[in-house]
Design the sequence.
């Protein structure tokens, strides 16, 4: 297993994303992922599956400290009091005393960022949140956040069709880990002729090439998977390395396709 390190945080570079997986399916996927060696599990208040994830973690029999657990405060709960109360509820649903990482899910100008981050830092001081981060923050908001708190992680949409080099460079300068969600572009990578061609050289799938491209930039990834085959595939990306020419070719696939762009999204870079 490889790790990302920032602000004293050690995070497994490949995690298991759980967006849109709920109920028994969520419990089964997380359980199987943990059996296969995943130790980084990503959830969020808005996913409505924290209780399912918590049940799977308990059922796994693993010690809590063996698992890196991330959740996110929803963008309508960013006032001081609700940051604290909603995090307490997340801990209850997840059946844990602490989160390894709590992210602000989306920036929201209706709530002062200093108050939001102040609440998270208080939770950190109380031992209920080990590390603080943000998600979906473009450059200006990320700069603001870094001025006000020890931001350990930025989670953003990042895949071969949406190269986030500007944000990545800023994050790396500020000592912030970057983790890619939707790293497989909701399955678009699977049929990409360029990625499949590169994969043939290594005996890897197009999806594994896309994940490896991220890892070689120093970016973590939390691909979602429902089947055991895909769980195994997404985890099997540590035994080969892309050449500089192959990396450049994949960067050339960028076409600014953004999969996640809700009405409340900020103005992107």
Sequence:
């Amino acid at each position: 297993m490889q790790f990302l390190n920032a602000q004293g945080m050690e995070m497994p570079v490949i995690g298991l994303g759980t967006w849109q997986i709920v109920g028994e399916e969520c419990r089964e996927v997380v359980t199987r992922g943990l059996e296969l060696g995943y130790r980084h599990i990503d959830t969020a208040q808005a996913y409505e599956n924290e209780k399912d994830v918590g049940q799977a973690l308990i059922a796994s029999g693993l010690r809590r400290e063996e698992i890196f657990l991330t959740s996110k405060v929803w963008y309508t709960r960013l006032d001081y009091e609700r940051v604290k109360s909603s995090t307490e509820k997340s801990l209850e649903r997840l059946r844990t005393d602490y989160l390894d990482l709590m992210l602000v899910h989306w920036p929201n100008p209706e709530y002062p960022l200093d108050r939001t981050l102040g609440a998270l830092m208080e939770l950190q001081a109380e031992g209920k949140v080990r590390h603080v981060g943000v998600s979906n923050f473009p450059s200006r908001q990320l700069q603001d956040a870094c001025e006000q708190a020890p931001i350990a992680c930025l989670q953003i949409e990042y895949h071969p069709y949406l190269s986030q080099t500007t944000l990545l460079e800023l994050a790396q300068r500020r000592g912030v880990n970057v983790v890619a969600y939707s790293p497989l572009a909701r399955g678009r990578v699977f049929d990409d002729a360029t990625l499949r061609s590169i994969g043939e050289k290594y005996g890897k799938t197009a999806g594994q090439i896309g994940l490896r491209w991220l890892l070689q930039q120093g970016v973590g990834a939390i691909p979602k998977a429902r089947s055991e085959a895909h769980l195994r595939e997404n985890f099997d990306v540590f035994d080969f390395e892309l050449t500089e020419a192959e990396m450049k070719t994949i960067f050339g696939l960028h076409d600014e396709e953004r999969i996640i762009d809700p009405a409340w999204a900020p103005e992107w870079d």
User: Anything to note?
Assistant: The mean pLDDT is 97. Strands lie at 3-6, 9-12, 16-17, 40-42, 68-73, 99-104, 129-135, 151-157, 177-181, 220-221. The chain has one domain: 9-251.
